[in-house]
Design brief:
The complex is a heterodimer of chains A (155) and B (780). By secondary structure, chain A is α+β, with helices and mostly antiparallel strands. Chain A has two domains: 75 residues, Roll (Ubiquitin-like (UB roll)); 69 residues, Orthogonal Bundle (DNA polymerase, domain 1). In chain A, 34% of the residues lie in helices and 15% in strands. In chain A, α2 packs across α3, α2 crosses α5 and α3 runs parallel beside α5. Chain A is globular. Chain B has 780 residues and is α+β, with helices and mostly antiparallel strands. Chain B is 27% helix and 23% strand. Chain B is built from 18 helices and 28 strands. Chain B has a seven-stranded mixed beta sheet, sandwiched between helices. A five-stranded mixed beta sheet of chain B has the order 7-15-14-13-8. In chain B, strands 18-26-27-28 form a four-stranded mixed beta sheet, sandwiched between helices. In chain B, β22 and β23 form a beta hairpin. The longest helix of chain B is centred in the C-terminal third of the chain and has 28 residues. The radius of gyration of chain B is 28 Å and the shape is globular. The chains are: A alpha+beta (155), B alpha+beta (780). The complex binds FE2/S2 (inorganic) cluster (2 copies). The site of one FE2/S2 (inorganic) cluster has 11 residues of chain A, from loops.
Chain lengths: 155, 780
């Protein structure tokens, strides 16, 4: 089946197996390996990308379901000048990552939270991260980073 | 020194790459022409194998090869053997059967790999694996730790006749039982240290590429130690070490299980050479659940006698550890001379009896997981101390105070032959009690009560041990452009070595942080004496090796500087990046440039400033990170739900190289400890032997909402005395402190019901039942 979409601002058109997942499409077809796959049960959130501006788990969508959409992955989040997105910068500032495997999903989810809920507090952010697992950080730096970026978004 | 030196909260160098999707993990490796691997796994917990028929699989579309253990063994692949020296009191050695990479005669746990299918695509390989027909004769199975040694338990190794691998005992004085029997207070605990799935977020993968011209297999794999893996894997593949190259770039978490000798990786490496094409295996999460080593899984029975004043007279401890279907690389070692040797932790107890029975069961083998025996040991001691407080009427703080080893007794040789060099166990506890506002707890409890919640506070004082294997090699090379490269034998997989090692080199040599590069993760460039990163050893072992490599650079640099400045070598001082003689000086960058140019060097000196140091610590020179953690919880008595509302940690990690990163280690360790105590449990169905908690749907990985914002401090007053840097390990403290502090808090919350203990994990169901049982007992 054909799928035509925009990924990180680039128009892409490919023939794919109908059962190919969006995550596989990004990783294996486009070699955008920043999007990670950490589970097979839609639990971990390592695979989160933005589909038409909203966070989705790319392991839970077929590639063909993204037909006609705009997809942003972690590779496309920073500005074209290379300036980090405020959530990326906040992750660095607050030590929100260790091994970095959950990080792309956490950052994409964080950007989504900040967009939806400027000024989100600690408790809100923790609740919003229900679908993202990190094994390294104890979430402390991740939550601090998102709360910080959300505060910046409000001001 | 400056803003990027030792002790500063320097932001990480590795972050930009990892935050922008440029990390490179094993699954990101794609080699042109690769075939995909899938493993056929045992659906049974225990079964004899009467035959393996691969004909249908070979016919399946896209399938190129199917291999069984017979093929691997014909190709020279060796079984896993174990270097575990334990004996029983009569000198009879432990029973430690070999593990075949892909067995053809018997499967001993559900998920055990039995055959390898290769195909053009991953889907085709999986479809092919479905068609391998194995004729199984299912056997009765045993999964329970406590029951594996029973006379009527199904036996995994009939040739041994029992599942108990060895009954190991320490050399205990005879009077222990008499001391306990005669004690004013006698307490006992029966504990379950629950089995855990380690679950680093990156599922396990392996990619192997064989180059016929050089006869070298390159294996891309997650790891924690490149050279240890090269040595072990080359031996299993029966090839010289220099014919196996191990490469790992980024690794998505380790926690102890990454460098192990996994059958899947061996099979993939062997197959790539056998068929002459690259082979890639991507384990999915469900596969990782049944093939990565599991952690913990002990039951403990401990009895302790105390005198009238609450001082411990003697301790008796019996542990059973479930090692699974085979020995893990280290599994049976953990409670004995692995981390478990830390028992009795921070307490001044000379008289104790200690026995361990490792048992085989039809479960995934267990091995090192964050703390590797130390969390288990500290959990036992802390539950005993809470029981002692209860029996003596002393507060939980006071009973600890009376038994913790006072600083004045250091250095202190434990009964198990560790030498504690430094620490202020009582002072650290007092700091934590103050930081956590223990004295204000009653008011907070009253406030919670108004909202219908039961509030509890819990404390854990712990000591663990770091340093691990006694050697490590690092290399520091100055480039002609004045920058520096660190070639590490350690292997950073989240710890931030790119940053910390650069801080060190800036401090030691005055080379700016930005101009220090880390090279790791390739056996072609890793120093041959490299060991790796586990057991919280990198800052101590790797750090000292860097310090001493830099010292050698300074010594050689002084000779070069003397030559350049036409002075005597003895007149040269090195300070903050400058070699000085009186008022003249040359910078280390200038010296590095000169070092590259033989015409500028003294007669006979080899060009370059490039030094390795193989650090061998004294056997006793380990370090003993310690701390005290206090946890506060609210329990909903109707639902049994526990919420952590406050968590305070004070850790003594010696000299703190980068507080940002060390705090990160503490938070991460606490989260894994809380995971064990609150949500995680690798439950097996005892009848079928199937792992019930086989995915993130059924296995309770802790989430962000399980934690409050934690407060962590350091007690930096006790630098380690056994290494040049004064550092102690930092990675495993949280996993030691959190489970006992948490359980103590929940039991305290339930004190109105008289609850004394609940086994981990303290799920809502267990907490609710504990309350319901207490209520019905009271009514009766
Ligand atoms: S990979 Fe998508 S949720 Fe885990
Ligand atoms: S940083 Fe390793 S899983 Fe989150």
């Amino acid at each position: 089946m054909n799928v035509t979409l925009t990924v990180n601002g680039q128009a892409i058109s490919r023939d794919v197996e109908p059962r190919m997942l969006l995550a596989e499409f990004l990783r294996d077809e486009l070699r955008l390996t920043g999007t990670h796959v950490g589970c097979d049960t839609t639990q971990c959130g390592c695979c989160i990308v933005h589909l038409d501006g909203e966070a989705v788990k790319s392991c839970t969508l077929f590639a063909v379901q993204a037909d006609g959409s705009k997809v942003t992955t972690i590779e496309g989040l920073a500005g074209t000048d290379g300036a980090l997105h405020p959530v990326q910068a906040a992750f660095r500032e607050h030590h929100g990552l260790q091994c970095g495997f959950c990080t792309p999903g956490m950052v994409m989810m964080g950007a989504d939270i900040v967009r939806r809920i400027p000024g989100a507090d600690d408790e809100t952010v923790r609740h919003e991260l229900e679908g993202n697992i990190c094994r390294c950080t104890g979430y402390q730096g991740i939550v601090e980073a998102i709360v910080d970026a959300a505060a910046q978004a409000r001001s | 020194m400056g803003q990027f030196g030792i002790g500063q909260p320097v932001r990480r160098k590795e972050d930009i790459r990892l935050l922008t999707g440029k990390g490179r993990y094993t699954d990101d490796v794609h080699v042109d022409g690769q075939v995909w691997a899938a493993f056929v796994r045992s659906p049974h917990a225990h079964a004899d194998i009467r035959g393996i028929d691969i004909a249908a699989a070979l016919e399946s579309p896209g399938v190129t090869h199917v291999f069984t253990g017979a093929d691997l063994e014909a190709g020279g692949v060796q079984p896993l053997l174990y270097d575990l020296p334990f004996k029983d009191r009569n000198g009879k050695p432990m029973f430690k059967p070999a593990r075949r990479i892909l067995p053809t005669d018997r499967a001993r746990f559900g998920g055990e790999p039995l055959a390898l299918v290769l195909a053009e695509t991953a889907e085709q390989a999986k479809a092919g694996a479905e068609l391998v027909e194995i004729d199984f004769e299912p056997l009765p199975c045993v999964t329970s730790t406590a029951r594996a040694g029973d006379p009527d338990a199904p036996v995994l190794y009939p040739e041994h006749g029992s599942n108990v691998a060895v009954h190991w005992e320490n050399r205990a004085p005879d009077e222990i039982d008499a001391l306990i029997a005669g004690a004013a207070h006698k307490v006992s605990v029966d504990l379950v240290n629950n089995r855990l799935v380690v679950a680093p977020m990156e599922p396990r993968c392996a990619v192997a590429d064989y180059d016929a011209a050089s006869d070298v297999i390159t294996l891309y794999t997650p790891t924690q130690g490149i050279m240890t893996m090269q040595t072990a894997f080359a031996a299993l593949l029966n090839i010289p070490k220099n014919k196996l190259r191990i490469v790992a770039q980024d690794v998505g978490g380790g926690f102890g299980i990454r460098s192990k000798r996994y059958p899947e990786s061996i099979a993939v490496a062997w197959a790539a050479k056998k068929i002459g094409r690259p082979v890639k295996w991507r384990g999915d999460r469900s596969e990782t659940f049944v093939s990565d080593y599991h952690g913990r899984d002990q039951v403990n029975h401990a009895v302790m006698g105390l005198d009238r004043d609450g001082r411990v007279l003697a301790l008796r401890l019996e542990t059973i550890v479930n090692v699974g279907g085979y020995c893990g690389d280290n599994g049976p070692r953990l409670p004995i001379d692995g981390g478990g040797r830390i028992i009795p932790c921070g307490y001044d107890i000379e008289k104790f009896y200690f026995s361990v029975k490792p048992v085989y069961t039809n479960t995934v083998p267990t091995d090192t997981y964050r703390g590797a025996g130390r969390p288990e040991a500290n959990f036992i001691m802390e539950r005993l101390m809470d029981a002692a407080a209860d029996a003596t009427g002393l507060s939980r703080i006071e009973v600890r105070r009376r038994n913790l080893i006072p600083t004045s007794k250091l250095p202190y040789r434990t009964q198990m032959d560790f030498v504690y060099d430094s620490g202020d166990f009582i002072g650290t506890m007092d700091m934590t009690v103050k930081e956590a506002d223990w004295d204000g707890f009653a008011a907070r409890r009253a406030e919670s009560e108004k909202r219908g919640k039961l509030r509890g506070i819990g404390i854990a004082s712990f000591v663990e041990q770091a340093g691990g294997r006694p050697t490590e090699e690092m290399r520091v090379k100055l480039e002609a452009d004045g920058s520096a490269t660190v070639y590490a034998g350690t292997f950073s997989h989240g710890q931030g070595h790119e940053t910390v090692y650069a801080q060190m080199v800036e401090d030691f040599l005055g080379i700016p942080f930005d101009q220090v590069k880390l090279v790791q993760g390739d056996s072609d460039t890793t120093p041959v004496g490299g060991i790796g990163t586990f057991g919280s050893r990198s800052s101590m072992m790797g750090g000292v090796a860097i310090r001493r490599s830099c010292n050698q650079i300074i010594i050689k640099g002084k000779r070069i500087a003397a030559h350049l400045l036409q002075a005597e070598e003895s007149q040269v001082r090195f300070e903050e990046g400058l070699f000085k003689v009186n008022v003249s000086s040359v910078s280390i960058q200038e010296v590095a440039r000169a070092a590259a140019d033989p015409s500028k060097l003294p007669e006979g000196m080899k060009a370059g400033l490039d030094e390795n140091y193989l650090f061998e610590r004294e056997p006793d020179a380990m370090n003993f990170p310690n701390g005290c953690h206090i946890c506060e919880v609210e329990v909903d008595p109707d639902l049994g739900i526990v919420q952590i509302v406050k968590y305070t940690a004070v850790d003594d990690c010696g000299v703190v190289l980068n507080p940002l990163l060390v705090h990160g280690q503490v938070y991460g360790g606490v989260a894994q400890g809380i995971g064990q105590a609150l949500t995680e449990d690798a439950v097996y169905d005892e009848t079928s032997g199937q792992l019930l908690a086989g995915s993130f749907m059924d296995y309770g990985m802790p989430r962000a909402h399980h934690f409050p914002h934690m407060v962590a401090h350091f007690n930096e007053s006790q630098p380690c005395k056994t290494n040049d840097l004064g550092v102690k390990g930092a990675g495993e403290a949280g996993a030691c402190g959190a489970p006992p502090a948490f359980v103590s808090a929940v039991v305290d919350a339930l004190s109105p019901y008289g609850v004394k203990h609940i086994d981990m994990p303290l799920t809502p169901e267990r907490v609710w039942r504990a309350i319901a049982d207490a209520k019905s007992k009271r009514a009766a």
